[in-house]
Design brief:
Layout: H1 2-6, H2 28-35, H3 37-41, H4 46-54, H5 58-62, H6 65-89, H7 96-103, H8 106-138, H9 146-162, H10 165-191, H11 218-228, H12 237-240, H13 249-278, H14 288-297, H15 301-316, H16 319-334, H17 352-369, H18 373-376, H19 382-402, H20 407-431, H21 438-465, E1 479-484, H22 490-502, E2 505-512, H23 516-532, E3 538-542, H24 549-562, E4 567-576, H25 589-600, E5 604-611, H26 617-629, H27 637-646
Amino acid sequence: MSLLASDPDTAPSAEEPPDTGARHKLTTLTGLAALSLDAMASVAYGPEAIVLVLAAAGGHGLGFTLPVTLAIAVLLAVLVASYRQVIAAFPDGGGSYAVARAHIGRRTSLVAAASLVLDYVLNVAVAVTAGVAALTSAFPGLYDERLWLCLGVLVLITAVNLRGIVDSARAFVVPTAVFIGAILALIAVGLFRSAPVSTEAAAGHASVLVGNATTVGTLLLLKAFASGCSALTGVEAIANAVPSFRAPAVRRAQRAEVALGALLGVMLIGLSVLISRFGLQPVEGVTVLAQLADASFGHNLAFYVVQFATMVLLALSANTSFGGLPVLLKLLARDNYLPHVFGLKADRQVHRHGVLTLAAVSAALLVFSGGNTNTLVPLFAIGVFVGFTIAQTGMVIHWRAVRGTKWVGKALLNGLGALLTGVSAVVVTATKFHDGAWLIVVALPLLVAGFESVHRAYTRIGERLGVGRIPEPPHRDRSLIVVPVSSLTRLTSEALTAAVSLGDEVRAVTICHPDAEDRIQTEALERDWALWNPGVPLVRVTSQRRSVGRPVAAYVREVSAADPGVRITVLIPEVEPAHMWQRLLQNQRGAVVAHAVRHETDAVICRLRFRLLDPPLEVQAAARPSRTTCRGGCRGHVLSRRLKNER
């Protein structure tokens, strides 16, 4: 530290303060933009989901749109209040996983984590396909290319997130603001309309109202409520990503959560009021939101602005998963339920492995579905309801444990939320089971089993390593360094220099195969070695097979068996080329030897990189004559004759 502080070139200047990583974290505004897109975009299909279910009861059923939406808004308020408390109680993020792990149990926490993982992955696929579907609706000629369009959008979102969550948030602030402004303007203008200004968008499209309407019963209302609850997906994302916020992270995350709840509630209720006021009916091929925009603004530029803003936000709402899932994967990795690589961060505070894994799995889902939204929607939102229920139940136990002020009221609030979301989870799963929801029912336990398997593996590794126990004090053993060589070069000299600096004894090993050409080369190497006389013995190892790694590993095993007390290190010299493309010219013998020694012996592997730099032009000119002389090779009688002449 003192050396860095005294060096004017490396010490931080007053104009450039050290980067603590805060600039790569979220503010309240950027957090709202980065982590609320999923919830905001659900405005486009949440009210429509309610209307489509109530349409089974005809026009009379559509009259219950507003009461169902108000019930969903009440649940939204309960969830926002609950997750605001989750943020304060669990500032390390994780949402329902963290709550369940602390208050319910390990297995339940894994169910919560698995449900969130599935929800995040499906959200990416559904969001991208829905956005592309809006695009292909406007431009039908692109319909056959929808899969490639989906993959292109996914690549774009992934690239933005690899630059950092703050950069992605800044990129999405404008689309989010345009969408929110457009929806609020639609509601405000529509409230001053006594009748629709235009119905051109729905003209010529068949109504989906059934002729033999059913009665509005409890089951139908529950089904409509459960379908409309798809608008609540994404509410938990901010609680899952609290560490991504700037300090004070808890306060900023709570503000973002409240702002999300307020905006989402106003938009859902406002749109439902307009649906009832205008008496809109669902029609094939036109969304309810498009009909509302047509009714409020007319079929003009404002109508297309709403459609375009909806299309963009639907496509970009996948960013919510890219903000929340990597943090959840980091927590699972910290608890040894996922590979530890998911806990690593890149320079821009990005959990790069989590981002890339999410992108890869989402791409596989897009290919599986062919870019078709209807294939994925039945799988959507079930996982998040499971997570909601577990989180609410855990918070009830939390309030009973802490018994702070007004804990009874808080526990009742969370208990009500757990009941409502639990009922929603059961209803959604039952009604969509045959439409593909059974995949989630199967995938949840499989994912939990995978977490358990990883945890058992880490437990066994920890027991073998003695993690948590004080190890024996270190002691010195006699060391032997084995250096595989095939020729006399500067690389050989550098490798032996490093070897004699590291160990008590050094042996160079060369592999000789039975064919005549190889025997001649080995004999020439032995003559050259004797003339060079580096002070290190050259050991010939004969192998009947044309391999390099296994003969070296066999020699190491033989030496280890003859002298069990010696510590053997295999030092493998390798060339590091000056240009990336030159790696294609290498024979990869070093990697082959390292692989064999690693799998067949307990020896330490040391790979010495000898970096080749492009020399200046004058050095190249001076080196040309000697290079020409040695063009035929520097082994054998050419090098032997040169060494004899020098002596």
